Amino acid sequence: MASTPVIETSRLSKxxxxxxxxxxxxxxxxxxxxxxxxxxxxxxxxAGKTTTIRLLLDLIRPSSGSARILGMDxxxxxxxxxxxxxxxxxxxxxxxxxxxxxxxxYMASVRGDSKGIVKHADELAEQLKLDTTKRVRDLSSGxxxxxxxxxxMMHEPELLILDEPSSGLDPLMQxxxxxxxxxxRDKGKTVFLSSHVLSEVQAICDxxxxxxxxxxxxxxxIDKLTNVEFRWVNVRFRDAIPDGLTAELxxxxxxxxxxxxxxQATMRLLGDFDPLLRIIGQGYVEDLRVEEPSLEDIFxxxxxxxxxxx
Amino acid sequence: xxxxxxxxxYKQTWKQMVYWxxxxxxxxxxxxxxVPLFDMQQMKELLESFPPFILAMVGVGNxxxxxxxxxxxVAIGFFGKSALxxxxxxxxxxxxxxxxxxxxxxxxxxxxxxxQRMRLVIEKFAAxxxxxxxxxxxxxxGMYAGVAISGIELDMARLTEVTFYLVPVMIxxxxxxMVIAAIIRRRQIALGLMTAYxxxxxxxxxxxxxxxxxxxxxxGSVSFFTYYNAANIMxxxxxxxxxxxxxxxxxxxxxxxxxxxxxRDIGV
Lengths: 310, 268
Description:
The complex is a heterodimer. Chain A is α/β, with parallel strands linked by helices. Helices cover 36% and strands 29% of the residues of chain A. In chain A, strands 6-7-8-3-9-10 form a 6-stranded mixed β-sheet, with helices on both faces. In chain A, strands 2-1-4-5 form a 4-stranded antiparallel β-sheet. In chain A, helix 3 (100-111) packs across helix 4 and helix 4 crosses helix 5. Chain A starts with 6 loop residues before the first strand and ends with a helix. Helix content of chain B is 78%, strand content 0%. The two termini of chain B are 26 Å apart. Chain A binds chain B through residues 54, 57-61, 79-80, 82-83, 85-87, 89, 91-95, 97-98, 102, 106-107, 109-112, 114, 151, and chain B through 1, 4-5, 7-8, 11-12, 104-106, 108-109, 111-116, 263-266.
């Protein structure tokens, strides 16, 4: 029997305001997140990512539809759910006059078993190189983010819900964060993270959902999302590019976004390599580089195809 | 753990309570120490020449005999004149129960913990109520020290009554602030409404007291200040029904705030 999804939403919608000032923030969101996966929730600012997370946490109430977390109703069983999840908001705000240790102790006390939780928090703080004796007001934005991660993870929750988790972390810490998330997944736990940093999602997520204007456009594995038909190709010739070759590149249906710069040509290649190889074979190719499309490209391609279809 | 929110709230508040307490205790001490410096009879004669409205404005009221006593001077000079100052602390605390943390985004973190909204509101309300008791104890100690220093004769039982009667009044103000914040959600609007409520209440009570036997007196009875008349408590003791009224309304507002807060979206 398949295990119960960790997150399951059914036609979840949220509307803010009323009358002419009504805004649809989330439109009939139906999706599932399975146990043991790192699920990325992608979308530009204002897409509805934070609204979804706040609905899952029962901070706001749906206009229609429902959500189940760890098999429980997100509204009726919200206290039991929050016992088993960890949360990091996009904008972490804490009491400025309290130290990291004081906040850790308080939150551990509310969760019960404060001794064990505080011990684990100390380990996490060490891993993230965070000084928890400082007051919140004295912490840099990156260190506040680290404190937020410690607070979200210190009770070893079954599900981590992270809103833009690595914003403000330096590259080294981002790497540490990615490793922590992979470690989490290896323990069979689940991570649901929202991000507009697509490389982050690419690096750590198993699947991703793409959200725009409150509408879930797609849910795919990262491999499938990145398996698109085009690549970026950069060709460097030994000499200036002959006019005839340039004309053929421009005429090819497989090539678009051609950029010529002296002896160098950059282009977007759709489909097989053979047509390109036949054209560039007319010159002396010094170097040929192929780049897989980034998630940014996929994102843009996805949106442009959606808009083209409208 | 039950009580964790209460403890944390109290830990975050006790210093402010001490600062407020020191200030108000010093003010109380000063008023008591000043009592021997005034000739009460002369003061009474001077005040008799004032129109009733002015007397009501300065909190003396119509009974000048009361003002001519040590108890009356302390009641009017400290508790009467500082009524608006006493209202500030519970408003600040009432805003902290939900509005402040909602406004600055901390509430999202609070409510990501396994704690019911109802429990959060009740524990915070309890913690701030305890801080109000602490504040009033400090005020009382300041006045007690004033009596010891000045050596004046003062009915200490009545002084205790009038001082500790501040507790239900301040808790009531905190409860009104809390329920407005729970309904309105926006901190600035809630604060503005609460400030207006206190000022209008004060004005209604002042006008009502100055116009006995008129409709203004009836309207004045709407003001909560009408039920905190320090001079009357000093002379006749507190009215139990008023005490019950303050606590009863506070409980009602607490229930209303919890009801509303349980059902609405948390703001950011």
